[in-house]
Amino acid sequence: KNEVEQSPQNLTAQEGEFITINCSYSVGISALHWLQQHPGGGIVSLFMLSSGKKKHGRLIATINIQEKHSSLHITASHPRDSAVYICAVIKETSGSRLTFGEGTQLTVNP
Amino acid sequence: ETGVTQTPRHLVMGMTNKKSLKCEQHLGHNAMYWYKQSAKKPLELMFVYSLEERVENNSVPSRFSPECPNSSHLFLHLHTLQPEDSALYLCASSQWARADQPQHFGDGTRLSIL
User: Fold this and answer.
1) Looking at CA atoms only, how far is residue B89 from chain A in angstroms?
2) Which of A21, A26, A62, A100 could make an S-S bridge to A72, C-beta 3.0–4.6 Å?
């Protein structure tokens, strides 16, 4: 069992829908990253958070350290949001290493 | 444009070939990383360099040999690879080799081993 689990693995939505992607982890962490990977392969860092909530445009990330859970929300989804969304955690003893989830493939249809 | 450039974008090679992957960053960062991404599996960290010194080697087979001649360039030398080595190889950089630093990724090299 992976230390970082994401759900769902695949998600298809219609343009305009509100989307939630979940990340659960089983280890102690100091912070968590959300990343976006487009079909071409490149990865972009969206958020790093260690508590509460962060917002950037239509993206909102929340984390509950006690429950070992984070969510990424996309409001008013658009086809250009179609990508793989990856959760990665910084374990308390990790140094320079991130521990990654398998990713959630999101497809937003027009 | 993330400031991290990887070449080539695609590479097909036989198991007996020797090739190299190249990564260059224009961000003034001090840390560089190699990751392997196989289908349906999480990203796997292979190597971390900080100020041109290798600081992590994640039990990677010796057929993968990294080289960091300066803080802007990172290579991954490949020889005698196996079919299971077919994957997307991603390079990343960050200001320092700490997990709380945002990493900037290249677009990756898609490697296929025949």
Assistant:
1) 9
2) A21
> Which residues does A90 contact at the CB level (< 8 Å), separation at least 6?
A29, A30, A31, A32, A33, A98, A99, B99, B100
The pLDDT confidence band at residue B1, using thresholds 50, 70 and 90, is low
Residues in chain A closer than 8 A to B88 (CB atoms): 41
Residue appearing with tokens 């025949």:
B114
Residue in A41, A94, A101 nearest the CB of B99: A94
Q: Which residues contact A35 (CB under 8 A, 6 or more apart)?
A: A43, A44, A45, A46, A85, A86, A87, A88
CB contact (8 A) between residue B100 and residue A48: yes
Q: What mean pLDDT, rounded, does chain B reach?
A: 93
